[in-house]
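Researcher: Next entry in the queue.
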Amino acid sequence: MATYEEFMNIEIRVGRVVRAEHFAAARKPAVKMWIDFGEMGILTSSAQITRRYAAEGLVGGQVLAVTNFPPRTIAGFSSQVLVLGAVPEEGDVVLVRPDLEVVPGTRVL
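Model: Structure for this entry, 109 residues:
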């Protein structure tokens, strides 16, 4: 849950996945990702993910992520960004792959 102030100051940026691997002991399919945000550097995220994606297939994909939330610990892994894109019927997170190439770190909102 986000506070009102966090919500009003949200920063959504484009990143590119440079590395991804599955959590071995996760109860549901989950991955940890290293995401390049250009001049902001490489930040980490962990997320549930739909079974349609293999971790290796996420590398090189673009994502939209909230970059200014405090780090969260998910399954023992500290996430510095929140990857967006929920599939309501599955509750999984899906990576966004825009048709156009966008420079990592570009602010979306």
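Model: Residues 87-91 have pLDDT under 50 and may be disordered.
Researcher: Noted, moving on.
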